[in-house]
Specification:
The chain is of the alpha/beta class. Helices cover 52% and strands 12% of the residues. It has twelve helices and eight strands. An eight-stranded mixed β-sheet has the order 3-2-1-4-5-6-7-8, sandwiched between helices.
Length: 320
């Protein structure tokens, strides 16, 4: 029979072993993304969901408050998959399997078991803050809370997940995975960290976007980050050239395509991005930096007021 002292040591050893196994299991689950959540079934959200389902081969919960948006997004997914099958990029079986990994929902509570969630809603700060506040309470404690924002401060978004600035429980898991449009085509993804973002969160985000077949690039949490800090003033200047008569839209686009070897000119690109999105980003750049060089073009504002938002509305600088 074991003495009381030996029994106590044995009990502690067993307890430590059980705890260690439980901890290891928890870490393993947290480190591997087995289910993805996407907030927003628009062009960007659907693209992210589709690529994750096809390339990373993970189940995706696609959430949107609008059933109409979900239906439109899934119709686009079917169209893109059918196109890939028709061009022999994927087999019919792969297309069916990919589509089967997409689960639509109008309830945010359906994201309660995802390992990674990516928000892809319009560039409205208050909307994003509200969503992240809710995600912090709904999602598990290991879930990476990512945003697809193209201009809004990650530090501010992370701060919206708690009422206590010293509490990093949720803020440390907030990061930006800024995908480029169209997501199925463009390889680049900007990884932006907030002041609160942990290195573990960065590592998991970098790993997952690579699983999606993307190439990540790091950026500091500065207005516009890297891509839009460079791209949007370029587009804005092209719009100013158009409104001041420096050149016609075709000439502006043609000289940039034929002179700098870009696939499309700045005005056509603005149509594909969305004229309203371009305006939102320029406004953030202008407000956050206070620099007049980021002041949105007058014509850009007028087009948004007219509802000429580019390809998605059927009219922008060009007709669609």
């Amino acid at each position: 029979m074991l003495g009381p002292r030996i029994s106590r040591h044995l009990a502690r050893a067993v307890e430590s072993h059980v705890s260690a196994r439980a901890f290891t299991s928890s870490v393993h689950r947290a480190s591997s993304v087995q289910t993805l959540g996407v907030v927003g079934a628009g062009q960007m959200g659907l693209g992210i969901a589709l690529v994750a389902a096809q390339k990373a081969q993970v189940p995706v919960i696609l959430f949107d408050t609008s059933q109409a948006s979900i239906d439109k997004g899934l119709k686009l997914a079917d169209k893109l998959l059918e196109k890939d099958v028709g061009k022999d990029r994927i087999s019919k079986e792969d297309a069916i399997a990919t589509r089967g990994r997409l689960t639509p929902t109008t309830s945010m509570d359906s994201l309660s078991e995802v390992d990674f969630v990516i928000e892809a809603v319009p560039e409205i700060p208050s909307l994003k803050f509200k969503i992240f506040s809710e995600l912090a309470h709904i999602c598990p404690s290991h879930t990476i809370l990512a945003t697809n924002t193209s201009s809004i401060s990650i530090t501010r978004i992370a701060a919206a997940t708690t009422t206590n600035p010293t509490d990093l429980y949720a803020p440390s898991r907030v990061i930006s995975t800024h995908f480029m449009n169209p997501v199925p085509v463009q390889k680049g993804v900007e990884i932006i960290t907030g002041l609160q973002t942990s290195q573990e969160t960065v590592d998991k985000a970098m790993d997952f976007v690579r699983r999606m077949g993307k190439i990540p690039s790091r950026s500091a949490d500065s207005p516009g980050f890297l891509a839009n800090r460079i791209l949007m003033p370029y587009i804005n200047e092209a719009i100013i050239c158009l409104e001041t008569g420096v050149g016609a839209k075709e000439d502006i686009d043609n000289i940039m395509k034929n002179g700098t070897n870009v696939p499309m000119g700045p005005l056509q690109l603005a149509d594909f991005i969305g004229i309203d999105t371009c305006l939102s980003i320029m406004e953030v750049l202008h407000q956050e930096t206070g620099d007049s060089k980021y002041r949105p073009a007058v014509l850009l504002r007028k087009m948004v007021s007219a509802g000429w938002l580019g390809k998605k509305s059927g009219k922008g600088f060009y007709d669609y």
